[in-house]
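Sequence only, no structure available. Ideas?
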Amino acid sequence: MTNSYQNSTELMQLAGYPLTLTDVTHACLYGRLNLFLVGDTGEGKTQLARDMMGYFGDKATFILGRNDMDTRELFQQLNPEFYKAVKEGKLTRGMSHVELTDKVNYHLIAVDELPNCVPSVRGQLFNLFDGFIELHGKAYPIGNGYSVGIATGNLGQKFTESSNDLGRALKDRMHVFIDTDYFMPQPSDTLEILAGNTNPRVNFDTQVQDRSQEIIKRHKAVVDQEMPFEKLIMAAYLRHGLDYAPVKDAAGKITGSLSKRKMKDQWPAKITDHEKGSDAALVLPLSMRAAKSTLRLSQSLDNVVQEKAGTTIQIDPIESMLNAYKFVAAYSGVLNEAEVEAKHSGDKYKALDAVSQLARRQYTTQADNIRAGLEMVHSGKLNEKVINLFTGRWEFMKDILTHLTKGGAQNEH
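Reply:
I predicted one. Tokens follow.
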């Protein structure tokens, strides 16, 4: 299938292969990761989402987000017969899920201008992305086991709710965020686009080729792919190592530590002294959902690179994880906006590049200790000398290695 969206700008390099926005979008489909495209209007976000719909034939649907849409209109778009039954009062509680879910079998739900939707509609859309419809307090599955969402929104749009927590839910349930303004097409792309088509409208006439089974097969391959132990350790670092904030005395000596997570609203104000280049006042640790999203995106990116290579190649698991982390974390709410503005000119991606560089250095300095820890695990005998190699932000490894040595679920690594 020929896509209408054109953009050769690199989002990353992985194992020497450049990956574009389309490549990363494919990775989200393979990983079944909800993708939120943010950026200025008219820059191709909707076209990219529309192109991805073409992969799923009639198993994809497009919804235009509006602030006057309610849940009944949403259901009308999904299934007109269901809406008619609701409107005429002919729908009973016992038949509602049959009337709706049996006819809503979409694998991909694309929502344009998601922030425009009111909270109740957005909540139902989140459910659709995650593979179910909530009716009368019960969840009914859709998509035959595979469903995913791609949503768009303009930078500067404000969410319609203020006091409730749905804004945070958006950040957590849209697994991957990409700022399309930061990765706008190259001038050569602009020339090709304008020379080929001056129609300013989104092209909904692209040839549809139902590749849904191929994509679902790729998704299963990603899920079944063996997870490198190094990736699990890096995910643990992003959850626990980044929770560490050193406490120093007047001479700069570390005298203890604080948990950023336990500080809650006092972070980062409670941090009064941290070393230059530290992430103590810059970034919070990942949530469990975000850690899972990072692992899944990393595996999916590897899959895309292997496809590009046409053969099995070695991919650095830490490089893969840190590339994935950048696009999961940038708009997830983990960054201290004031610190990003002061030290990184407001650029979230540069801020996370700094965090990633430090994470890479940290992992490199601990590599020998991690190897010693794994040897201890394989021996099946706890060694306090090895356990005590891990201090400071790596204190979390003590619990992991003790757990694995005693027969934890991952000790086969």
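The first helix runs from residue 21 to 31.
Hope that gets you unstuck.
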